[in-house]
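Q: Got a minute? One more chain.
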Amino acid sequence: MPPPDCSQADVFCAALVTDTLGVKDHGSNQDAWLGLEESQADKIVDHIAYIESIDTRDYDRNIAYFAEKGYDVIVTSGIALQDETLRAADLYPDSVFVGIHQPRTDSPPNLISITFPEDQMGFIAGALASRLTKTGVAAGVCETSGIDSMWRYCEGFRAGASYFGDGINVLIEYREDGDRDKLFVDEAWGYDTASRLIRRGADVVFAAGGVTGQGALRAATNAGVFAIGAERNQAAGLGVSGKGVVTSLYGQTSFEVREVMRLLRSGQISEDRIGQIRFIPLGEKFPESLGIEAETLRIMLWDGRMRTNVLPEKP
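A: Always. Here it is, folded:
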């Protein structure tokens, strides 16, 4: 059966353009698609589709494909698509764009931002690291600090490890002055950086920044030390090379996508949204109290009883 004509006013169509991790990334891409599937099942959306980006150079073309087909809503997943999403929102004012992990700056009214509190995720990871470390050294590896979300991840980690760990030595590395073409995809840098920090005594590694961060998590697994992931369920996504990942923290994207679809279909204006954090439970070899502590901390951060005191951007 051919797809409906999405340019028709009575047909509500929504599409997803993923980053290079694809729709089965065990993270925001997969959750965004789940949110669209659930929206279709609830008869909020008439037709849904997705394109998996193979290369970063495909982003503009993939977004334009759906816009030119008349899709009402185009969801783009990942901060790596932020510039392309902003350009498309200017070029195609008849479509609404939803940028996941793409904080709003000066953007057109047809662009909705869905973000998650990266400083809180880093803070929880730091608190866990302070409990897991035996050497008293914990490391954070993130993409460039010139991207505010990456700054918040690793500075949140620093704050959490320092707050809960008495005398913890926190080592933080950002990918500064790197090749811009390798933004979020510099696995070698992530691996080499984490390996160097492990040689300096780190026995817990936190990492964020797409494939760059995954390189650090792989290094932790190969070195036999604990790793804490972000942005998706990294243990599931990395498989054997992610055996060192004891937990991951990332956003509840599917709920946020469903809510935006519901509001838009009903004719309401959906404002930018800050979603809640998802926490992957630790395995059986870890004390149950550790998971309870992390979940309690997540709730306290969300409702404001505790604050990370991390600035929203690098000073």
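A: The radius of gyration is 20 Å.
Q: Perfect, thanks.
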